[in-house]
């Protein structure tokens, strides 16, 4: 029971740390200034409770280019990654002691493509029951104007998420400039 409480506390703390990224700076109505964080940072914060075995990071690998994430995109991105992690902990690769997750990021035609690949998961089927988590994933992908596909393989779940880079952060911010936000002078 102590281990369960500790595990739950660690996962809630990870979500709280991701949420804290939205509170790191004063809230604004527009995308302003530098991005609040990066995609890799969000992934690392949320998956940290699952990544350690014997004190060394071993279960999670993130590869590929990182992408800035604006204040407006932090919450939907965090919720999406958190739900994938929760499902992996309940049913997938993180539910077994030897399970692993490899996350590969690439950029293709103005979109960030994130491939979440589980290895060492128990056998799964496409007939998994759709619950609140599925609705959360659907809502956040819609909010980000993203496309998401799932494929169950013998090794585990593979998720392909394609997010327009402008949904993560405006182009001026990604290029190191200042985005003044929408023109409100009219």
UniProtKB/TrEMBL annotation:
Keywords: ATP-binding, Kinase, Nucleotide-binding, Phosphoprotein, Transferase. Its EC number is 2.7.13.3. It catalyses: ATP + protein L-histidine = ADP + protein N-phospho-L-histidine. InterPro entries: HATPase_C_sf. It comes from the Bacteria. It is an enzyme of class 2 (transferase). This is histidine kinase.
